[in-house]
Amino acid sequence: MELIIAPDSRAIATIVADAIAALLDRKPDAVLGVATGSSPLAIYDELATRHAAGEISLARARAFMLDEYVGLAAEHPQRYRNVIETEFAGRVDIDPANVKGPDGLAADIPAACAAYEQAIVDAGGVDLQILGIGTDGHIAFNEPGSSLASRTRIKTLTVQTRQDNARFFDDDLEQVPTHCLTQGLATIMSARHLVLVATGLAKAEAVHHMVEGSVSAMWPATILQHHPHATVLVDEAAASRL
Ligand code: GLP
Asked: Where is this site: Part of the allosteric site (predicted)?
């Protein structure tokens, strides 16, 4: 695992955008793994800026989302599909048809999860996966206790994660969905390059476990220790327990 401590989220975003630009140079139809949450927002800002300046094109790129809430209406602004459109896809020249996510409105959830796994395989796998980390060490929505061998499936959200995310739902816990579809830890580990970003003191304990703790399903992000090409970018606050 490569660990980079940078001054702030903008500095982190510059480094990650450089890596994505180099990937697109080498492979214009690269497959990106995109994450929601506040952590990747500076990266999406940087990609949008570089695209507006004519420095990068994602016209041939493809993207796969990590996770999705179950049951949020198609037009709900917090549906991750819509969040990714607003924060990332709608600000660059990626073809919307090439941005895929698990279908949280599917009638047959297991079939939708299997189809999503197959779609990633059919695309040749993810080249670069952007990741955030939850305060409890979850990645995507793989909460503590998730199998390290898991694939895309339905999961129950923990109360902690629902509380963390209530800020996006008028601070009303009742409005936060109780279930999600998420790529599994093994799905995420199949990506060729994992890039995890974390800032702020609230992430310090999770970062400590991820980098220095024993690999354990109780701290799902520790699985990154087994990845041959994982880059972790943190600010001083998130690194403060290392
Ligand atoms: C959610 C997302 C995760 C994200 C986490 C942290 O649970 N499913 O992918 O990493 O939030 O979010 P934030 O970056 O806002 O702290």
From this structure: 146, 153, 155-156
At 6, the amino acid letter reads A
Backbone phi and psi for residue 236, each to the nearest 5 degrees, phi listed first: -60, -40
Domain coordinates in residue numbering, the chain: 2-234
**pTM of the predicted model as reported, rounded to 2 decimal places:** 0.97
Domain 2-234 maps to which CATH number in 3.40.50.1360, 3.40.50.150, 3.40.50.1380, 1.10.8.60? 3.40.50.1360
**Nearest of 126, 154, 143, 124 to residue 206 by alpha carbon:** 143
Cβ–Cβ under 8 Å, residues 119 and 140: no
3-state class of 125 per DSSP? coil
35 Cα nearest atom in ligand 1: 9
Distance CA 119, CA 116 (A): 5
> How do residues 146-178 score in pLDDT, each as one tens digit?
999 999 999 999 998 899 899 999 999 999 999
pLDDT of residue 163: 93
- In this predicted complex, what is the ipTM? 0.95
Which residues are part of the catalytic machinery? 67, 136, 138, 143
Question: Which ranges in the chain belong to alpha helices (H)?
Answer: 9-26, 41-52, 80-87, 109-122, 159-165, 185-189, 204-212
Ligand 1 midpoint to CA 221 (Å): 12
